[in-house]
Amino acid sequence: MILVHIDHDLGTRAPGGVTGVDPLSLQALAAARTLDDAVTAVVAADGDLPPAAAAELRAHGASGIRVAMHPGLADYAPQATARILATLVEEVCPRAVLAAGSARGNEVMAHLAAILDLPLATDCTQITIGPGQSEVTRARWGGNLLEEARVHASILLATTLPHAFPVTPAPAAGEVHTWTPQVPDADLLVRVVERVMPTGAVGVGLSEAKVIVSGGRGVGSAEGFAPLAELAELLGGTVGCSRVVTSAGWRPHSEQVGQTGTKVAPDLYIACGISGATQHLAGCKSAKVVVAINTDRDAPIMQVADYVIVDDLHAVLPAVIEALRQ
Amino acid sequence: MNICVCIKRVPLLGSAIVLTEDQRSIDTSRLGFTVSPHEECAVEAAVQLVEEHGGTITLLCLGPAAAVEQLREQLALGPDRAILLEAADEVEPQATAALMGAAIEADMAATGAPYDLILLGSESADTAGYQTGIRLAHRLGLPAITNVKGLAVADGQVTGERAVGSAREVYRAPLPAVVTTKDGLNVPRYPSVPGRIKARKKAIDIQQVPLPAGVPAGAPAGGMGPRMEKLRLIVPVSEAKGAQDLGTGDQAAARLVEVIRQIGVLA
User: Fold this and answer.
1) Residue B38 near chain A (CB below 8 Å)
2) CATH at residue A222
3) By residue range, what is the domain housing residue B37?
4) What is chain B's Cα-based Rg?
5) Is 0.90 exceeded by the ipTM?
6) Residue B86's domain is classified under what CATH number?
7) Within chain A, which residues score under 70 in pLDDT?
8) N or C: which terminus of chain B has fewer CB atoms within 10 Å of its end residue's CB?
9) DSSP-assigned beta bridge partners for residue B174
10) Which residues of A touch B252 (CB under 8 A)?
């Protein structure tokens, strides 16, 4: 059996809309199905699993669903969630426990690994389980480098790199079993105590944007971003930037694309005056189409682009904006 | 307040990664070294907290002898002293947390001054295991708040904020605590010349650490206890895209508009 930790926003999301199940957790379910027919989805929450959420887990291959109900789980509590997984691991002795390689998935699994004193392979792109040991391929350097590793452990703990395991429909029985776990107070010490929603008008977020017009050192100044912002607005997209730009204070950090910023996957990524250091490419490699505008034909960004314009962005962008306005 | 900041020496990658012949490491013979932006923000946060509340900052690094270079650079920003746990090879996260935990306990016993706050980056730039901070918290029996882009200390409590899209989640824990930080928490300062001069005289305690029994780094298979063994590294082959050159000037602008129309992203 494989256990899959399912991250969710069941307790905090607004009513209606999507089921509250984290889409990346469905990718972890997909990975588990390639390893075993018996795949149990584990949900830690403060109430019953809504039928729509259970149906979504069944449709994606959960042959069993275990719901741990605890009043302390009204909002995300990483260590408590890991403690619940640890007690379940002792009960069912799974071959592996998987979760999404998201901030939360990696966090819960790191707690679980610390509690069980087992190794944890994060951000895996391939997983094979054998008796007593498993082999994984995992991402290093934001995916710029892969590592093949052997995990010596009776139970494999691993998280799946986002978008490495495609989600396909796989209907399964998925009977729901609910139980009330014991959770020590110390495990509930750290949890979300408050949510701060953004004030004022909120534009399209980087991670959801279909179009990103991104700028690097070549933009030259904070004022130099005006045509990038104008083009982004015309295309219903948003502005991104490289780390040089946030370090210089030209743009806020929330717009930084890269290994330590936001990893993006737009339909169109227009890189203006960005050289394309590996740390930046780690953040934009999932873009469907990359257009690079740069005066340096040999810049690394030109190697990963679909279309290149070897010219000054301040000459090209105003012409693009004018043509689009007509 | 007394703060310990854990940092890691990592290569400054250029545009292409070259591996060593045995495919187990990056060939760093032509590369410089640095610490991750996450950790630069951790050091800056510590310096700001001590400016506000008073106290001391100790840097802790597990790495090769040459990591003294990164410790001096960070000492120039304000921390008081540093401890280097010297290990030649890459050490996996379980062993790293065990070694750092033991060093922190020994240091607190020696100085008689317990740490109120232990800061790390959310994940290292190179191995990116997302777990050393949390394992260290369990090892020391402390709460862990991770991935923070906002950090404040008041009334014996630490408050951390994590960005989720454009919203923020707020976490709170009593001190002492472990907190892992993310790039964007603050804008790290540049070292001043007096800072650099002072850093030369600051104490770096270099300790040779035997790897703990049962979890040697990169040990051969068989009877060594649960661990992760690195087999080899692979540089992913990116498909040669054969980029189409759209020309220059107004001609390029017109052709880019065509491309934009083709992709179908026009609102």
Assistant:
1) yes
2) 3.40.50.1220
3) 2-208
4) 22
5) yes
6) 3.40.50.620
7) 13-17, 200-203
8) C
9) B157
10) 309, 311, 316, 319
